[in-house]
Amino acid sequence: MAGRHDENRHPLNIVEQAELQQRFPRAGYWFGMLPTHPDFPNHYQQAQYYPLPYRQDTPGILIQHGQPQVPAPHMPPHLPPPHLPPPHVLHPANNPAELPPPYQAVTGEVVAARREASQISLSIPLNTGVVGGVITYVPLRLPANLPFQDFFSRVCAKMDLDPATAELGYKITGDPVCGAAFRLMDEADLDEAMRKMIEKMRRARTREIVLTLQNLKPATRAAGSSGATAARRRVSSQVAVQEEDDMATSVSFVPQLRELKRRLECNCHIGKYCFISPITGDHQALGHRELTLWAKHILLDPESTNYNRPPSTKMFDHVRSRKKSHQRNKENFHPQIHVHLGSLMQARAPSTATSGLSKEPTGAQEDPFVIDSEVGDVEVKVEEPEHSPDYMKLVGNVGRLNNSVWRF
Question: Which stretches of sequence are listed as region Disordered (predicted)?
Fold first, then answer.
């Protein structure tokens, strides 16, 4: 067990190492207790304990404490594990010509991109030649080494364009959105586009690189009729036929309206049409309603209406909206008021009280009220008519009516 105290030896003796080698060979190697690995017999365990810094490697020279230097045990040379390439591959000669280029040490993503470089992704726009058409994009994958004529004919057929007159451009993922498209019209343009695509695919990691085509010529083809458009056209044709049937009952006064506007264009009021009154010389502004009515009357009633004489309608008649009020002289105005009252006998008493009364004589005369009015004062004179004795008994306590004068 004396070997355990030596820091350059394994901490176990031969028996313990044999037992550990039998029971836990791999764990003993990784913990530094066994010299070799069971799977790698030529791979020896390196020394876990090294000489202290103050020890000297020169033999025969004593250290501070007067003890001789103990030489380190023999250690086998360090060999790389079997899964690594030979040393001459890891450490080539210092000849620059023999060094591999840096980009050859590629990762798996770049290798996959190279393998996929034989197929490129394209984005094909549709309805680019239709006036007012809605542009949509569909994906397409083509070989990168495709000849130009074959490539051009395929994309033109997909875009519904004529290869003889089509002008195409392209943009690649990452190009400026507002920048102009690159030209794609011959073999050289296609080779340049493929070179850019492959270069970007090599550098790409997660983003997909797509070649987007564009139609450089403006749209010239009319849109095809869909179901809804065809229905609208059928309705429009029916309306047109109905209008043709009604042409016999319709008139057009567009020429008269144009001539009327030309004559009534006002120089004082720029942009307006005015009718100048021949009596007062005032300018009367006319709107679209007045002008169309005037032109219609010129066409339908040329005898009474012309370009100088408007139609006889309320719209062109200058009539006051309110009648002119007449002022009366209050000083000379004396109203006469006559009040006529019937006989007071019409106010009959109850039947029990009037059973013994006699009717008023038919010959009784009634004098009307006579009202003499002056400025500020009105006199009302009431004269009592003659009554029968029975009526006077009925009045009784009321007394006789005397001549009275009221002032208002």
Answer: 348-367
- Round to whole Å and give the CA distance between 190 and 197: 10
Query: Is the pLDDT score of 213 beyond 90?
Result: yes
Residues near 340 by beta carbon (within 8 Å), at least 6 away in sequence: 368, 369
Q: Is 140 helix (H, G, I), strand (E, B) or coil?
A: strand
Q: Which helix (H) or strand (E) holds 406?
A: strand 404-407
> What whole-number distance in Å separates Cα of residue 326 and Cα of residue 333?
14
Q: Give the whole-angstrom CA distance, residue 388 versus residue 394.
A: 10
How many CB atoms are closer than 10 A to CB 216?
15
Q: Residue 211: is it exposed, middle or buried by C-beta count within 10 angstroms (0-12/13-18/19+)?
A: buried
Q: Any idea where the domains of the chain sit in the sequence? A: 1-59, 109-215, 252-300, 366-408
Say how far apart CA 30 and CA 373 lie, in whole Å: 144
pLDDT 10s digits, 274-291: 888 877 888 888 888 888
In which element (H, E) is residue 289 found? helix 288-300
Residue 176 clears pLDDT 50, i.e. is over it: yes
pLDDT band for position 122 (cuts 50, 70, 90): very high
**Residue range 351-371: mean pLDDT, rounded:** 48
In Å, what is the CA distance from 277 to each residue of 167, 283, 308, 309? 67, 7, 10, 10
Mean pLDDT over residues 99-128, rounded?
63
Tokens representing 335 are 């109203």
Structure tokens at 167: 């002008």
CATH number belonging to the domain at 109-215, selected among 3.90.180.10, 3.10.20.90, 3.10.20.810, 3.40.50.1820? 3.10.20.90
Residue-wise pLDDT tens digits, 47-75? 544 454 544 444 444 444 444 555 555 55
CB neighbours of residue 156 within 10 Å: 19
- Mean pLDDT calculated for residue range 306-335: 69
- What is the biggest distance separating any 2 CA atoms in the chain, rounded to whole angstroms? 187
